[in-house]
Design brief:
- The protein has 193 residues and is an all-alpha fold.
- Helix content is 76%, strand content 0%.
- It has helices at 2-17, 24-31, 45-70, 76-93, 95-106, 113-141, 149-166, 173-191.
């Protein structure tokens, strides 16, 4: 229970104030424990931060992975669109996790860069594998243009990344949703058979 509360407080504070701007004493105070109590669960501030970062990546992966369980029988177009909508749901419904993840993927603390890159690569491998599976199925069905699967995967992941960043630019959900739909429509028009 305390371990979970420490991670929840760390997620919020690291997301709001940054790694350097967050003291372990602030995290402890928010949870109602003394700072040394943190060391019963985490060996260091770095260890706590990485636990939160890896969980945030895992949560995102879980949201994305759930699509593979529910998309049987869908067209390639619908699967790819559903994947973008799942990403949007993650940003809307798990805001603290999404802000934390976005912040540290773009601006990681230098001394944690290697560890964070490893965690990101594991996540990217999973996401890339899901998208690759969708693209291979689409090629097999004749729903996609005959281009190398890596080209399709890379273009789609760039679309996801771009929309993930744009989500934070626009305060109007309607405006973002319009941009997301237009971006997907243009992508689909370019890759469909």
């Amino acid at each position: 229970m305390t371990r979970t509360k420490l991670k929840e407080a760390a997620l919020r504070l690291f997301g709001e104030k940054g790694y350097d701007g967050t003291a372990l004493s602030e995290i402890a105070k928010e949870v109602g424990v003394k700072t040394p109590a943190i060391y019963a669960f985490f060996s260091s501030k770095e260890d706590l931060f990485m636990a939160v970062f890896e969980e945030s990546m895992s949560s995102y992966n879980g949201v994305i992975q759930a699509l593979t369980d529910s998309s049987e029988g869908m067209s390639t177009e619908n699967k790819l669109h559903a994947l973008l909508l799942r990403q949007y749901d993650f940003h809307r419904n798990k805001q603290e996790l999404a802000v934390f993840t976005f912040r540290y993927l773009v601006f990681p603390p230098d001394f944690l860069l290697d560890r964070m890159q490893e965690a990101f690569e594991r996540s990217d491998l999973l996401l890339g594998g899901i998208v690759r599976g969708i693209m291979l199925e689409g090629l097999e069905r004749g729903e996609l243009a005959e281009v190398p699967v890596e080209t399709l995967v890379d273009a789609y992941l760039a679309l996801m990344d771009g929309l993930g960043i744009q989500y934070y630019y626009y305060k109007s959900p309607e405006l973002f949703e319009r941009k997301q739909q237009h971006a997907f429509d243009m992508f689909w028009r370019a890759v469909k058979a």
